[in-house]
Write a structure and sequence with these properties.
The structure holds two protein chains of two kinds.
Chain A lengths: L6 H15 L3 E5 L16 H5 L3 E3 L4 H13 L3 E5 L10 H9 L14 E6 L24 E4 L6 H10 L4 E6 L12 E2 L3 E6 L6 E6 L7 E4 L5 H15 L3 E5 L2 E3 L4 H10 L2 E4 L8 H13 L8 E3 L10 H5 L5 H12 L1
Parallel strand pairs in A: 1-2, 1-3, 3-4, 4-6, 5-6, 10-11, 10-13, 13-14
Antiparallel strand pairs in A: 5-12, 7-8, 8-9, 9-11
Chain B lengths: L15 H22 L15 H6 L8 E4 L4 H8 L2 H9 L16 E2 L2 E3 L6 H14 L6 E6 L6 H12 L4 E7 L2 E2 L2 E2 L8 H7 L3 E5 L4 H18 L3 E6 L15 H9 L2 H8 L1 H24 L9
Helix pairs in contact in B: 1-3, 1-11, 4-11, 5-6, 10-11
Bound molecules: thiamine diphosphate.
Chain lengths: ~350, ~300
């Protein structure tokens, strides 16, 4: 295993592994064939290797999900790719009204082995319609599961877990991660030890500072925010000697607060960060669960960090003011301990 | 509405099975309307009164494992395939024996390779996916989708037609063009024609103007075999009539338009073909439905939760 594999390479390898292991898996999306291999190269080599199990479609997001639904309905395991996460709105009906509802609306559990891959997030200068983080729009849909790509998790395990779930899943992939190096062992950012907590294929990554007993703060960040979260926590320790443990969950929804409840209760201070504007957000959902589980132990209100309440501008300097930065996370953390 | 007045068409007598299938749908839905009027049904229902011959004529042309996708107006599609009035009524009334545990109700049925859902146009791409599955596994099966004329307003229809033709999928689109969509006449809904739209994608098209089940089957059998074996998608448009309201009590059509639709009802036509035999079966099926309804309405309500 290459130590410095990029996250995108790891995800590509995961797709290869999963499609090799099961001949009822399909990859369906726009411009996914070789030699191009998808707008972010994540499907590279798949069509050369798996032939007609890789389906390139017209620009028809609704039909991509519809066909994936038809394949899942007839017992296959399709993986659908949205070229950019923003376009998933055009498939919203198929996902919410068909993929998810078909699991239970016919009076018995009907497995739907379906994964929707969804590149999200800004910081690439693609502007308002190609930079969104739409996770929040899919929260709270019965039988729909949400996951997020991280720089720590092994994607073969995650992808296998999603495809075996029997419930439709959306995999949100921060597109900046694709070209970053994956961390597996050793110190992260020269300071943090990486471990996994929780059972099953979707454990939560924990990054903690060696030799520190209980940290003063807990920071919860999904995969796309992990880098910025770690940077903020590192700066906080080096400049202010405040220890913060960072937790990076793989499963966003339904969200299992159990592995976090204890560390959060011991720290008494927690911050949840995400790359979406405020309002009906994932962070608010996590905060609600933390209040229910840790109310007695909290020493300060759960602190949420969002992007600004704004579209995501194209120009770099304007975008910088909107998306979450390690600096905005850092100042939220400092306020929290004050 | 541009339906012109016509004398009841000449129809050739049916065999007992087809006749009973037609009557089963007719009397089932009349019973539903009665139960509604008596306050014994919850929610809503969309009857296919006048359109029963469409699924009845298609039924023997479809294989048991062909995937049939139905819509909001699906009682006829279901009954023509399964002849199961008790299961369907139990589903609609949430009582024991319900085909989908009372969760789905009239519009959401899944049984074997039959599935209906209440979102217009949603099943076309799903059916394309099922058709792709059949083709890849070299099964001699097709996916059939029932839609109305109004559903041609949905973009999903075109995304699916394009892909079905590009990928040569065994997809059969059955259009029940009753000239109206809820309260909106076709003239206010559709520019051009269904034929023009199918042809724009190079998809095969066949128009059925008769109610004569023998003729319909003779016309469609070779066409459907081409869908099944040569993977040529096909749009079949039935020029049909909706006799009842869209759901219940929401018929905004002028009385004379409804009357003209009534004149085209198959019921009188098939009765005229063989009155004595027709009446005998009519009576028998009516009694059966009365018994089924009495039985189902006595049953306990289904318990909650999805097993
Ligand atoms: C996406 C969607 N929009 C609107 C509706 C509400 N609706 C149910 S049936 C119907 C009319 C459908 O007309 P048509 O396709 O002509 O079929 P018909 O009812 O005539 O059989 C409408 C608007 C719906 N079920 N789904």
């Amino acid at each position: 295993m290459k130590r410095n594999e990029r996250v995108g390479e790891n995800l590509n390898r995961a797709l290869h592994d999963v499609m090799a292991a099961h001949d009822d898996t399909f990859l369906i999306g726009e411009d996914v064939l070789d030699p191009y291999g998808g707008a972010f190269n994540i499907t590279k080599g798949l069509s050369d290797r798996f032939g007609d199990r890789v389906l390139t479609t017209p620009i028809s997001e609704n039909a991509i999900l519809g066909i994936a639904n038809g394949l899942a309905l007839t017992g296959n395991k399709p993986i659908a790719e949205m070229m950019f996460g923003d376009f998933i709105t055009l498939a919203f009906d198929q996902i919410v009204n068909f993929s998810a509802k078909s699991v239970a609306m016919y009076g018995r559990q009907h497995p739907m082995h379906l994964v929707v891959r969804c590149p999200v997030g800004g910081r690439r200068g693609y502007g308002p319609t190609h930079s969104q983080s739409p996770q929040k729009h899919f929260l709270g849909v019965p039988d729909l599961h949400l996951f997020e790509l991280s720089p720590f998790h092994d994607n073969t395990a995650v992808l296998n877990g999603m495809i075996e779930l029997g419930k439709p899943s959306i995999f949100f992939e921060d597109k900046v991660l694709y070209t970053e190096r994956r961390h597996q062992e050793g110190l992260v950012a020269d300071l943090f030890t990486l471990e996994f907590v929780g059972e099953g294929p979707f454990p939560t990554a924990r990054l903690s500072i060696d030799g520190i007993g209980d940290p003063e703060l807990v920071l919860i960040a999904p995969g796309g925010l992990a880098g910025r979260a770690v940077e903020a926590a590192r700066e906080l320790f080096l400049s202010h000697e405040i220890a913060c443990a960072v937790y990076v969950p793989s499963a966003l929804y339904p969200f299992d607060v159990s592995v976090l409840a204890d560390p959060v209760a011991r720290a008494g201070r927690v911050c949840v960060v995400e790359d979406a504007p405020p309002g009906g957000s994932w962070g608010a959902e996590v905060a609600h669960q933390l209040y229910s589980h840790c109310w007695q132990s909290l020493r300060a209100p759960v602190r949420l960090v969002h992007s600004a309440d704004s579209v995501i501008p194209t120009a770099l300097h304007l975008e910088r003011d909107v998306v979450v930065s390690s600096r905005s996370v850092g100042s939220a953390l400092r306020e929290l301990v004050r | 509405m541009t339906i012109t007045a016509q004398a009841p068409p000449e129809l050739r007598a049916l065999d007992d099975e087809d006749l009973e299938s037609l009557l089963l749908v007719r009397h089932f839905e009349r019973k539903l309307l009665d139960l509604f009027a008596a306050g014994k049904l919850n929610g809503t229902t969309h009857t296919c009164l006048g359109q029963e011959y469409v699924p009845v004529s298609l039924n023997p042309l479809l294989a048991e494992d062909d995937f049939v996708f139905s819509n909001h107006r699906g009682h006829g599609h279901y009954l023509a395939r399964f002849a199961d009035p008790a299961g369907l009524l139990a589903e609609i009334t949430g009582r024991e024996g319900a085909v989908c545990g009372g969760v789905g109700g009239s519009q959401h049925i899944f049984r074997g390779s039959y599935l209906s859902t209440g979102i217009q146009g949603e099943s076309l791409p799903v059916a394309a996916g099922a058709a792709l599955h059949f083709k890849r596994n070299e099964l001699p099966l097709l996916a059939a989708v029932y839609i109305g004329d109004g559903t041609w307003g949905e973009g999903s229809v075109y995304e699916a037609l394009n892909i079905a033709q590009l990928w040569e999928l065994p997809l059969l689109v059955v259009v029940e063009n009753n000239g109206i969509s809820q309260t909106t006449p076709s003239a206010a809904n559709m520019a051009g024609t269904v034929r023009g739209r199918a042809e724009a994608f190079g998809v095969g098209y066949h128009r059925v103007t008769t109610h004569d089940i023998h003729r319909i089957r003779a016309e469609l059998a070779p066409e459907i075999e081409r869908v099944r074996h040569q993977h040529q998608p096909l749009v079949v448009e039935f020029e049909t009539v909706r006799l009842g309201p869209h759901s219940k009590g929401d018929d905004t059509r002028p009385a004379e338009v409804v009357e003209r639709a009534r004149q085209r009802d198959w019921y009188g036509g098939y009765r005229a073909a063989d009155p004595e035999r027709f009446d005998r079966h009519d009576h028998k099926v009516r009694e059966l439905i009365d018994l089924v309804a009495a039985d189902v309405l006595e049953r306990p309500l289904v318990s909650g939760g999805v097993a």
